[in-house]
Amino acid sequence: MDGSPSPELDDVTAAPIPPAPTAPRPWRTLVLAILLVGLVGTLVELLLLGHYEDNWQLIPIALIGALLMALLFHALVASRRTVQAFRAVVVLVCVSAVVGVYLHYQANVEWELETTPDMHGLELFREVITGALPLLAPGAMLQFGLLGLLWTYRHPLLATSASGDVPTTEN
Fold it and tell me: In sequence order, what DSSP letters do the residues of 61-84 get, joined into one string?
């Protein structure tokens, strides 16, 4: 033995497991650029629409701000922890999309029943999904979350070598 670490072996075939490939830098940078354009555009739109009347409406604004801050911090101090922190915020963004769709649905139900109390069934559902609050608008948060997860997928800073070393470069 020459003292070098042995490669990981597959549990089933006992063959060496090749290292996971990382996405090429231009591809990862493009995903990040698309994410940034979407985040900034949506933040501006939410602010212009006055999407801050109650605490629930502040959630997407706060989460977009948290994502932008996490990316800024990563740009200043790129490390494994900054990628992990970004990933944690991205998971919250995905959850907020589901919560947002539910809240928009509930608000539309309340509005429709307030204006037409005897409405029910398919008619109510049809009016709710086409109601005053856009039901699928919070889905944009899910798109941001998925783009963020894609950006962190097999990120070079999350990879460890056989010796346990963690790389310290790449966006």
Answer: HHHHHHHHHHHHHHHHS--HHHHH
